[in-house]
Amino acid sequence: MTRTCLTAAALILGTVPAFAADSAAIVDTYADIAHAAYSDSLATAQDLKIAVDALIAEPSQDTLDAARAAWIAAREPYQQTEVYRFGNAIVDDWEGKVNAWPLDEGLIDYVDASYGGATDENELAALNVIGNPTLTIAGTEVDATEITPALIADTLNEADGVETNVARGYHAIEFLLWGQDLNGTDAGAGERPYTDYAQGEDCTNGNCDRRADYLTAATHLLISDLEEMVDAWDEDGEARAEVTANPDAGLVTILTGMGSLSYGEQAGERMRLGLMLNDPEEEHDCFSDNTHRSHYNDGLGIRNVYLGSYTRVDGSVVEGPALADLVEETDPALNAELTGKLDTTVAALEAISDKAESGDMAYDQMLAAGNAEGEALIMAAIDGLIDQTRSIERVVTALNLDAIQFEGSDSLDNPDAVFQ
């Protein structure tokens, strides 16, 4: 991904005056919200495991639907944590374990003939681990007789050094629950039958026992990975210690995550690129057609950390001194400006979500060429994300903080390159 430097190159410390909400208290709130949101992500992943176990024990349409619903519920808190990427190296280095995207699903399981096979970019794109107990990866024979968390984590994920060989995380599980979405920009998500997990003569598409083993192992890995991040933000955790060690630098971390997710990642790579290409393969949750909720929760997460308030899955609220309080002390008009823009963006993302949830138009349908209504919905959110990024830049200047480098995207910074 390209990067664009939206401010200058150094952090000027010691120039921020004492405010009612000082930087140490703000960073503490930021860390508390991280711990709460990752804890919610872990709890909902544990609920997902219960549903997956039930599906495997007794495959039926009801147990498959329940597992899918549990996956969707698990995405709600997790997506609100994505604002902790970019500024926090510990989070960014870890994030690929749980949310890497896009993935070449043919690595994992059977795919439609239209998918094709190996490519110049990825000779393992159609490896089909579930269908093959013996594999060859980078010229080495691999025994995949038992599909275990260790096999997935140590051998399969990013096999042969290819980033799209995603073998673990939310999206691998999503594919195993829904299967491919072959509807293009027409209505409909993946339609994997529950009999893909049936045993004996009721099994469809072969290897149902290995498919169940893979789904079990991937779900186990997701839980262990989330446990790692919950621990990292605990009172004595590494991520909390790193961000609170220098509270002024912690403010830079907060703003880096806000600006990078707003601009290059969400407005660019996740939304503008797919709209430019009219390509549902650019959907973030492409198998389940849950992209509208992922986009909404990303926007909500940005607002959460600015306002210092997170509503947990159980309805309780974690809140405290926030960056908004500091900006209010410095420049009340700027705080009102950014708060208003964050609200505008969340409202635009909510409009996308409401349209998709109504059943009237899924996100992949919004991407279709010639869909003026869908394009308008998506562009309103993109414009809001870009606009709020400009105000985030102004906050950096107002607080005498320098050197924040926000993630960029060719779709925003160099559109011609997208089609080359």
Walkthrough of the structure:
- The strands form three sheets. The protein has a two-stranded antiparallel ribbon with strand order 1-6.
- The protein is mostly helical.
- α2 (61-79) packs parallel to α9.
- It has 15 helices and six strands.
- Range of helix content: 55-70%
Chain-averaged pLDDT: 92
Q: What is the topology, as strand order, of the major beta sheet?
A: 1-6
Runs in which pLDDT lies below 50 for 5 or more consecutive residues are 1-20
Gyration radius (Cα, Å) is 22 Å
Number of helices: 15
Q: What can be said about the biggest beta sheet?
A: 2 strands, antiparallel
Number of strands: 6
Instruction: Kindly report how far apart the N and C termini lie.
Output: 15 Å
What is the general shape?
Answer: globular
User: What would you call the structural class?
Assistant: mainly alpha
Quick synopsis:
With 420 residues, this protein is mostly helical.
Layout of secondary structure:
Elements: E1 3-5, H1 23-57, H2 61-79, H3 89-99, E2 134-137, E3 140-143, H4 149-156, H5 170-178, H6 208-232, H7 238-244, H8 247-277, H9 291-307, E4 309-311, E5 317-319, H10 323-330, H11 332-357, H12 363-366, H13 372-398, E6 405-407, H14 410-413, H15 415-418
Antiparallel strand pairs: 1-6, 2-3, 4-5
Helix pairs in contact: 1-2, 1-6, 1-7, 1-8, 2-5, 2-9, 3-6, 5-6, 8-9, 8-13, 9-11, 10-11, 11-13
List keywords for this structure.
single chain; 420 residues; mainly alpha; two-stranded antiparallel sheet; two-stranded antiparallel ribbon; 15 helices; 6 strands; globular
